[in-house]
Amino acid sequence: MSFEIPIGPQHPALKEPISLRMTVDGEVITGVDIRLGYNHRGVEKLAEQKTWIQNIYLTERICGICSHSHATCYVQAVEKLMELLPPRRGLYIRYLVSELERVHSHLLWLGVAGHEAGFDSFFMYTWRDREIVMDLLEMISGNRVHYAINTIGGVRRDIDEGQKAKILEGVATLRKRSEYYFAIGANEPSFVARIAGVGMLSKEQAVSLCAVGPVARASGVARDVRKEDPYAVYDELDFELCTADSCDVLGRVVVRVKELLESYKMIEQMVRNLPDGDIAVKAPRKAKPGEAVSRYEAPRGENIHYVKSSGADKPERLKVRAPTLGNYPATIEMLKKGFIADIPLIFAAIDPCICCAERAVTLVDAANGAESIVRMSELRRRALARAKNAPVKGNAVWPF
Amino acid sequence: MSDIEIVESLKRDLGARALEIANPDRRRIFLKVAPAELVGAVSLLRDKYDCAYLATVTGLDRGEAFELLYHFASPVACVSVRTEIPRTAPRVASICAVIPGAILYEREIQEMFGIAVEGIPDPRRLNLPDDWPDGQYPLRKDWKHVRPAEVIPGGKS
């Protein structure tokens, strides 16, 4: 007997609308269907009617967490089309904001992972620390969410010595706190036991399903645009590509904690080596006919924009592929053969950003198709109850 | 492998099947093939050039024809495979057998441009709602949004 369980599209516990339909056999998930489109706003069509400059602000609004990622990916492509070379100081400030954004996004995700695993004090710690980096972003750009610091040909705001000192101070505090997260698994074996072996995605599956970002890297696929295709300043920075080979949610936590520390390293390098000079060059109103493919490593994985110009002041075509969409085929595999109780944890582990890519759960019984609607809170309760009764996985070890 | 080596090697491997190869920028390669050669070219890229990762599929409405760009990335270059499909017969073969991760992008191409992807394992719509009228393809250049007249249930009070 199998049931189909729908989760979403609308649910108070889900921050964004998506519909997951799980076919379950008892407690085990045998099939998953993801339905998208509840948040489709037609951004690609709209972009064809806006000018090059207006589109910076449009692409920034594709997402509220990785807003800078989309805007940067877009301006990179347009600068290529317009044959502009932004000044190095402008580039350093732009990618400094990129790394600060990655820090805030990863801290947010660590908190969500802790929450879904039933470790709420971890959630409170990381979100407290996230305020430090949010304040830094506000100081640099004037905004907490849509920084609006990019412009075609550079950035819109400069930073001064006082701000540099504050950034270094903030990063030093964050590093100290993050080192505590490093040790957390060693002190909290129950947390490790909850996330180890959940949401398995083998390396072969990650490759064939085109997974991106921390999800791919946690399955041992060393794929990072900053290393493969070092855009702008990344070939001048000293950092390491972070991977894990446990292929589960534990691996995804490990990769993101490691990336936090790498980002702190990059931020310090960029602030200390900030070149002098202008922050932007003047951009023409129109771009020459041509096309450009721009790649950017967003906190969730590779972001790719394709821009085509016909010589007008508007793009002929703007194609956006956000990392969450690239991770959906892999998510289906992760959920299969898992337990209903693990759905929130596995789904949260890809760090889904529905508004980038484009929640109640319905459980459907396979034999009779009967549906029962389950609340996310109820699912969480079941997840916690199951974890409590599960035998502690003695072989799960915190890798640091 | 540098960009030039990849371009030379692709020319040798594909011969006349490669209609056009361009290298406009560092680590950016554009390859044009006929629609009939698409699956073969994609398999070659996957097996020999380490391009198992498909970033996305872009559709373009060029008036007389549609263009599809399959953006692949290997650790050394981003290879975009271009193919041109006549507007009168909008059909293309699915590459899901070679690259299983292409499924969502092919579904998107199908609903947004009305290009039938032959052999797609899951032909349902991706983003558009279930009650979207047939024959409306929003990313075609000649498609204009017409806002339907607002109907207040029970009439205006």
Description of the molecule:
The complex is a heterodimer of chains A (400) and B (157). With 400 residues, chain A is an alpha+beta fold. Chain A has two domains: 2-40 and 327-389, no CATH class; 43-189 and 225-240 and 273-323, Cytochrome-c3 Hydrogenase, chain B (Orthogonal Bundle). Chain A has helices spanning 43-47, 52-60, 67-81, 88-116, 120-141, 161-187, 189-195, 203-208, 213-218, 225-228, 249-272, 323-335, 343-349, 354-357, 376-389, and strands at 2-7, 19-25, 28-35, 150-151, 154-155, 290-298, 301-309, 315-321, 361-365, 371-374. In chain A, the strands form three sheets. In chain A, strands 1, 2, 3, 9 and 10 form a five-stranded mixed β-sheet that branches. In chain A, helix 2 (52-60) runs antiparallel to helix 3 (67-81), helix 4 runs antiparallel to helix 11 (249-272) and helix 4 runs antiparallel to helix 13 (343-349). Chain B has 157 residues and is an alpha/beta fold. In chain B, 22% of the residues lie in helices and 29% in strands. Chain B has helices at 3-14, 38-49, 103-113, and strands at residues 20-25, 28-33, 53-61, 65-73, 78-86, 91-93, 116-118. In chain B, the strands form two sheets. Chain B has a five-stranded mixed β-sheet, covered by helices on one side. Chain B has a two-stranded parallel ribbon with strand order 6-7. Chain B is elongated, with a radius of gyration of 19 Å. The chains are: A alpha+beta (400), B alpha/beta (157).
